[in-house]
Give the backbone structure.
Amino acid sequence: MPPLFKRRQSSPKPTQRQIEERQMVLERLQRLSQGLDPWMLIEPTIAAARTRQETYDQANNQSLQDEDYGIPTADTFDEDNTQRNFIEDVQAIHTEANQSERQNRTRTQWEDVLPSLDGAYLLLKAHTKNWTLPNSFDNHTHMFCDCNDNHYRTVDLIDLNGQKQERIRFCLCTPDLLHLLGHGYLGSSPVAPTAAFSFDLLGFHNHLWNWCTIAYQPFMQAMKLRLEERSPPLLTALGKSRDFRTNFSATVDIYRNLMNRTDSMANEVLDLTKQERLARDTCPACFGKSMDLTNTPSPLIICLDGNFQQRHHAAASKNYHPLMTPDRFVQPEAINAMDATIGLHEQLNQIRPTTDKCADAHTAADDKRNNSTWKACDDTGLMGCCCRHDAVVSLANITGGGEKRKYPLAILQQRNMFSEHQNCLTFGTSVFHSYVHNWKCQIEFSPRFNDGWGLSDGEGLERLWSFLSSLISSLRYSTRNHRLSALAHKVSFHNERGILQLVQWLRQKYRIASSKRLDAEKILGSLAVLRNPFDTHQGTYTSAFLKSQWINQVNFQKSHNDTETEENEQLAAFLDQEATLTRLRSELNGMVDLFNPSAYNRILEMVQEFAMAEEQQRAIARNLGGVPAHLTGSDDERKARLLVWHAKSKLYVHAVELYAERQPLNRGTPVGTTLTTRILAAMDRRKKPIQALLKKFNLYRTDYLTRFAPSQLNLPENQPLTYHTFSNLSLDHSFWQDVYLYHSREPWALSADVRKGIQAILIVERTSEEMVMIKQELKNAMSWAVGYHEKLSSSIHHIEAQGGEEFNALAEWLPAVKLGDIDNTAKTKLVLPVLTDQIAEHNEAPQAVDGGNNADADDVVEMLDPADVMAMLNLGAGDNNAGGNTDNNNVNP
């Protein structure tokens, strides 16, 4: 290959910083300090600021003189101090301007050198097989430079196994970074780098950071100690040990940039559509186009959530680079445009803010709750979007404020996911978050109670935030650009790992769905032999009856408004307080013993407790508008039922909180001994109030059953509830299904068997949906794998067979690929190894799923019909004329 990447524009020979420049700045400041024509030496904005400062000082002094504090205020203005402060302000502005200019100059230099650096990187990566050959670190600069213009400079070279100072040959026609690249090292600055790091070290750190998220400082300290045991230390000109943390951080950013450019180049060469890119980079199960001829609709389930731990402090760093938003993030302009659109529609439709008791009960990040924390941050968090396989679709950087609508809507608008299917949209809440909402919201939005969701839990972003939690401490005080690029790189690794584990994920979910369905069918089978006391024909429980009871339960709750629910809550609280007063009166009367002085203290405590209970009772009565007559009437059964309902409602709140405390222990990921101890201690602190409430609930339920349903008193489900049993109840258990509905007399509210059957019916429906979705997702993933392999093979074949000028003229992707100042023929030769590596990785992906265990993969393939498998294999063999794709998850290109 002829010499490549010649520099068209000559750059000045790198020298040390000019002493004259500093002397000129010093002379300028000296003239300014002496008052020699200072206004001609500064910018107009500084002069205006000076004028405003003088005006403010005069007004402030005048106001102090007008107030008589008994202190002499005659002319205490210090002109010398003011002059000194003004000079310091000018120096600070001058320093800031110099720093900004230097940063802009560095950014421009990187933009100029990156295309050539990318081309040389691809050339040497293919030549050395990713720097794995024995001669990888020999001098290969002759491959792109053979000029005679030589000059040498000493550069510190750091490798994974050693470090050294070496005199490197440089020239004017080729950028310095390319000369270092020829030795197997990547420099840390675009011009005259003084330190460079080997690709072995950068690759090792990339894998280590992806899995462990190690910070730069401890990593470089560990590398320094290790390398100094094997080679001489690298010192500065003053003989001090050199710190390479900043150099290494900059080099890692460039290394990641090169990898991102390689991926983007592959997308351009393969001419992937928007949906194909989503399938390749995000999730082929959700965004892959199925070759299924049955045109089975494939629902797309995504979740949106915010995280406000991933914030950035405004004073953490002075970043003069303009904010560069990675492709994984929504651009700030799109978010601002969506905010303007929302404001316009609110104005046109005269939308007024309304209060929602259920929404207010759910703790979310908003401007009022977190204003004191956010006022010191320029980036306050992240808004994420992921599919049901936990693959990240997109992110949005939240700047100032909380979970506002503009962020999720901007994400959906960017992906243009639902332009043709907006009438098919269904909204829901994540499974765990739905538990903190009232029962009416759960019925309307919980995925467990509505059709089409399968077993999707909507908690994918919670798992993502847990995965990204190790970045919080380091990125909170990094530069804004570094924060966004690090998050994008980590998310890309998260998606790549998810694609490799996709088949394993589908197999595991399929087995869970099968197990849940089998357990639910056993419950329905046990109910099918029991007599249905609500059937006039004395029959047994049937699926149709249980389904109709669920429909009646949903309709009953939807027909009751929030006002009625609040009234029942207030009435139940009134009755509960009345029962407490009755108990206290009874205990107080039983303790009156004038001949027992030891009982005096307890009597005083009881009197005080009695007074407090009476005050609470009067407060509830005032809210009710006086003591209702129907509560003191003869409706004892309703009063007893409300007491049970009230106690059970409070138990449900404790159950949700206990589940939230225990959730980190049930995620399957290690949390460490310290955190486990804290979680268990928090659970123990909840035990005492829960036991007190359990005692009250058992008392109320036993009293109700004894007086009004004695035949049900000895049933297993009506035995006293213990803390052990309570703590092991799942939030989906039938015990909680009537927690808000004890004021109904329908079968679903009276019978535990009916509630158990309803829960089993819902599980059967959701598991059936889940199994259908998994089969379709596996078809999508397999179809994508076959189609992507075909695209790679076709592109490689065309480049190899038609690599001449005729192909170069027809290839539309050539102008979009920037690899430096080279012709199209050389460009295609650099692209070919990239595609070859892509197809090799694609072929190795199935073996990487289970370590090459093909038997496990066959278990998943068995979920497909043999005819479907044969149809896809026939299509993959080249039958491109068979049917099109009409799935509902198509994304507009």
About this structure: The first helix runs from residue 19 to 33. Residues 299-317+329-421+441-500 form one domain. The chain has 31 helices and nine strands.
